[in-house]
Write a structure and sequence with these properties.
two-stranded antiparallel sheet; 161 residues; mainly alpha; 2 domains
Length: 161
C-alpha cells in the first residue's frame, strides 16, 4: 500500500510526466528529488498507480470533449450553413474549408438543390442536461459514457449505413 507522499508522487507524475517535478510537488527534498523519483519508479505498485491516475485523466479529458461537442451542436451558429445553401456553387475551395459545418449531419445534392440536415439541438441539450446531472450526482466515468452511448442511440447514432 502506498503512503500519502507516494500517492501524491503518482498523481503529479501522471499530470506533469516529469520525475523531478513530481517528486518535489509530492514533498520530497529537492536535492534528492531525481534519485527518489528513480527509486519510486522501480516499484511495480507505483507504476500501477500512475497508470490508474493516467486513465482517470484520459477519461476526464474525454468527458470534457463530449460536453464540448454537444455544446457546439446545441449552441452553434448556422450562418455558415446558410451561406453554403445560398452560395454553395459560387464558393471556392478555400471558402468551403473555412465554413463551420460542425452541426451538419448530412448534405445531399438533389435536382440542383442542396439538402442539408442538422443534428437535433434539442437532443443535444437533453444530453448535456443528463450528463451534467449525472456528474452532479457523483456518477462514475463509466456511467457518463453509458449515458452518452444511450443518448446517441436515441439520436440515431448507432445506425450502420
Amino acid at each position: 500500500m502506498l503512503n500519502p507522499k507516494e500517492q501524491l508522487f503518482c498523481y503529479y507524475f501522471s499530470c506533469f510526466q516529469n520525475l523531478k517535478e513530481a517528486s518535489i510537488k509530492a514533498g520530497y527534498p529537492a536535492l534528492s528529488a531525481e534519485k527518489t523519483a528513480a527509486k519510486l519508479m522501480g516499484r511495480e505498485e507505483i507504476k500501477q498507480q500512475i497508470c490508474e491516475y493516467s486513465k482517470q485523466k484520459d477519461m476526464e479529458y474525454l468527458q470534457a470533449m463530449v460536453l464540448s461537442g454537444l455544446e457546439r451542436l446545441a449552441f452553434g451558429e448556422i450562418n455558415d450553413i446558410i451561406q453554403l445553401m445560398m452560395k454553395g456553387n459560387e464558393l471556392d475551395e478555400k471558402q468551403l474549408q473555412n465554413l463551420n459545418l460542425y452541426m451538419v449531419s448530412e448534405i445531399k445534392q438533389k435536382d440542383g438543390c442542396l439538402e442539408v440536415k442538422l443534428f437535433d439541438r434539442y437532443q443535444a441539450l437533453k444530453l448535456i442536461q443528463e450528463l451534467i446531472q449525472l456528474k452532479q450526482n457523483h456518477g462514475t466515468t463509466e456511467e457518463f459514457l453509458q449515458a452518452f452511448v444511450e443518448g446517441t442511440k436515441q439520436w440515431g447514432g448507432d445506425k450502420d449505413e
